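Before a colleague's protein record goes any further, I have to sign it off. What it holds is a sequence and that sequence's fold in token form. Would you go through it and say whether the fold makes sense for this chain? The record follows directly below this note.
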Amino acid sequence: MIKMCIEFIFDPIKWPREQMDEDFFKLSKMFNAMRSVVRVPDIDPKYKVAVLASKQEHCLVDFLYGWQEGKLPVEITCVISNHDRGPNSHVIRFLERHGIPYHYLCAKENEREEELLELVQNTDFLVLARYMQPVPLQKEAYLGYKLLESLSSKGSLTSYFNMILSGKFLRSYGKDVINIHHGLLPSFKGGKPAKQAFDAGVKLIGATSHFVTEELDAGPIIEQMVERVSHRDNLRTFVQKSEDVEKQCLAKAIKSYCELRVLPYEMNKTVVF
């Protein structure tokens, strides 16, 4: 299997943008390519993206300021949250200045995802900037149950666990969803990864940006970053260092994705050029 990313310069007069898609499509057929995507940053519209976030704001705020500074080549259609922010909060004021809608979804889980699906229909992909939703612990409904059940026995969880998005939503949406996990996957899945890492006595903590799948924290990894820790650190400094790398990791993953440098293959792997 060959994965390839090609960058080139062209004359739009001699090679019109519309003709380019047709030519590359024919070329991909010659090689039986599974997928071929052509994107011209200066001509094609930016990817439309909705950002989902819960109460914690460090990833959301960093994403918004990165977008404002032109570091992230996307168009933000809206910010969606299951946390109600006041009208005078800095996030709401920022969004109002830039004309970006903010949607607070407070309905029950099934109704919330139906409303969410309506809000994101016209997006190209979703970004989860520390978005989690409390879901009742039901064995028959969620693939992440066994993992979370074992965590519950250690006192980490009670009758609820944090889930990102349901399999039903992912299948209905049918496009990529990129998440930031505040831990170095595949270790420390689920809730409180910083505490899990602290209790394990690790020497490196990190963050992982990955595609969201139906299995909790198990999607193909796009980007990972680490920060060294030592016996001098406590749980508070673990969390602080984790938040710093989370912001950088998510921004780099989104930039790589928009530049078509992320190519998934097999079931859970990616090539990142």
Summary: The chain has one domain: 46-133+160-272. The domain at 46-133+160-272 is CATH 3.40.50.170 (Rossmann fold). The first helix runs from residue 17 to 30.
